[in-house]
Amino acid sequence: MTDITASTFIRQDMAGERPAPVKTTGFTGFVRTRLLNSPTNILLTLVSALLIWFTVIPALKFLLVDAVWVGKDREACLEQNVGHAVGACWPYVTAKFGQFMYGFYPDAERWRVNLTYGLAVVLLVPLLIPRLPAKGLNAGLFFFALPVVAFFLLYGGGLSGFGVSWTAATLQLFAESVDTAGNALVRGGANLPVVGMLMWLLGKLVVLIGMLASLLIWPLVWVRDQLQASHQPVWTDLALTAIVVTALVFVIGGGSRALRSVVATAATFAGIALVIAIMGLDRGGLPIVDTRLWGGMLVTLVVSVIGIALALGRRSTIPLIRLFSIAFIELVRGVPLITVLFFATYMLPLFLPGNMRIDGLVRALVGVALFSGAYMAEVIRGGLQAIPRGQAEAASALGLSWWKKTSFIVLPQALRHVIPGIVNSFISLFKDTSLVSIVALFDLLGSLKASFADPVWATPTTAFTGFAFTGLIYFVFCFGMSRYSLLVERRLNAHRRH
Q1: Cβ neighbours of residue 411 under 8 Å, at least 6 residues apart?
Q2: Whether 300 contacts 430, CB under 8 Å
Q3: d(CA 326, CA 114)
Q4: Which of 157, 223, 231, 458 has a CA positioned 20 to 30 A from the CA of residue 370?
Q5: Under 8 Å between Cβ of 433 and 368
């Protein structure tokens, strides 16, 4: 007992203060833990600081400190008139801003472009805000109604008919194309001995098919001619199309069970009638602005639209659709975008009937859409393969159809997995639109280069100022898309955060 008491230690004075813990938060903590926490990071920090000093500082000096902000012509941006080294010539950007945004679109009609931009923003912003309601209606207006309205706003023109007339014209063109192909085979086989007979027989068979197709569509063509001869062909055709489509929805949907779909269909046609009346499409519409006058940011934004249907086609259970999708994807991915643009612009018209013409901008849009669709299809396919097979099997066990299973179960999860890939593809496409200048279309960069030919603004810093301005525009769009994709990715993957 005495030994235990003797060995007990009791401190007689206060313990000394310990040093404060190393700060790991705030700016000081960030520098200590991220920039100077190892010899390698210290070296990288010094190299980065030197890189910023020799690149960012001169760029800011060029864009802001030594820049000229006011002027009417090139004289305001010359060094001998300013008295010091001249940086960016911002009066040049102010003078050419309309050309950068609209190309050579007529000044009196540029309100149509502004209205299109405004409608796009009004419909897009609610889609980007998760908490706002009516996403289905908003998406339908943005992806289906807006492109049609934008076409008549930007290009102009009106309607001479509607669904019945369009269907009859398409089928009649198909029948005429079949008949033309058959006659070409008959003429080609006339000068060949053995193979010519087979070509002649094949040509006669194709001509017969064309004649049968013409006979089958004759009632529809007759109805089209009667509609065109009426006093109000557009409104009559629209009313007949609405009645036919609504009746089909009612019958296919199962009668009274499809009442909601019937009401939605009728409301859609009512909205179409409202747009036709407001824009005067039955009376010729707005003045036509040829796409050769389009340019600048307008073309860049128009060409940037793409789709994802080929991904589903590649995973289809129908062999013909799957093989066609695979062949198309592999063929298009194997050639550069510039080759696709040249083919769509100069060779595609050679494969069309002689009386059919496609606008130059539309041909470029087709080429870009096919190219980007092939790449997007592979991105989406990666997301589809990441979905466990049990998800689709469980949906099938619940009695869901293929469309509902794909739309509500499989595709939403697949898109959540490949959001970074989708945004990366879209950013790449947004920048690749500058290649359309090779096929005589003026996007933002094309309009910039065209502005260099103006002698009124020919200065040593004009080109640098123009490229800096367009570079800032591209950066704002691309950076905004990447930041929003991170926001969506964090929101959709909330269940994975711990």
Answers
A1: 312, 384
A2: yes
A3: 40
A4: 157
A5: yes
- CB of 163 within 8 A of CB of 237? yes
Buried b (16+ CB within 10 A) or exposed e, 295-334: bbbbbbbbbbebebebbbbbbeeeeeeeeebeebbeebee
What count of other Cβ atoms lies within 10 Å of the Cβ of residue 431?
Answer: 15
d(CA 20, CA 211) in angstroms, rounded, equals 94
Torsion of CA 296, 299, 300, 304, to 10 degrees: 170
Cα gap 241→165, rounded to integer Å: 9
For 443-471, what is each residue's pLDDT tens digit?
A: 777 777 777 777 778 788 888 888 888 88
Element spanning 295, H or E: strand 295-296
One-letter amino acid for residue 198 of the chain: L
What whole-number distance in Å separates Cα of residue 182 and Cα of residue 363?
27
Distance CA 200, CA 182 (A): 9
Q: Given its phi and psi angles, is residue 433 left (phi above 0), alpha (psi -120 to 50 degrees) or beta?
A: alpha
pTM of the model: 0.63
Q: Return the bridge partners of 442, or none.
A: 295
